[in-house]
Amino acid sequence: MVQGLPSTAQLSRLCAGMIVLTGGQTLLAQGHDFVxxxxxxxxxxxxxxxxxxxxxxxxxxxxxxxxGRLGRLATIAGATAFIGMSVIDFTLWALPSEMARQTFGSxxxxxxxxxxxxxxxxxxxxxxxxxxxxxxWVVVMRWRVWLVLFGxxxxxxxxxxxxxxxxxxxxxxxxAGLRAMWVLVRSQTTPLLQTGA
Length: 197
Prior knowledge:
Elements (H helix, E strand, L loop, with lengths): L7 H21 L3 H6 L5 H14 L9 H29 L3 H12 L2 H9 L3 H12 L2 H4 L1 H18 L3 H24 L4 H4 L2
Helix pairs in contact: 1-3, 1-10, 3-4, 4-7, 7-9, 9-10
């Protein structure tokens, strides 16, 4: 399906992005009061923002075919939505009272032009795009791709059901799949597509 595979450096960037995102999700899973009590920085949303940016940094360098290009576009759109979501979350975090946060949050949720691209649908594109992109490598990467896809499904189910620890587990499974890809690529001395490994 593709002419090449990602390098170890490219997979390292994907892994690094997932590590930072997992850190943010782990802090987020501690609960609303924990997130609101962070001072002097909102570590949760800084980690989520930095994770999304790291995951997509130099994403266009990764060799992909037509399906992967669609996935890459969705991943970049998802990262853009993560940036917008982070701005909204930073604003919520900075408001002086719980009443102000509830009022602002309610307002945002009732404006589809903001809630759909930045809170509900948009950030999901980061993971959908990553899944579509790695799907191109399934012939060579086999179970590693399925591990990434399973992790992405766990993230989606956790987000839909508001099960924060399931989201963390999904990030860990996705990271395990990306790490396994990195190990495979690093261990090869000849191009994988030529050897049929």
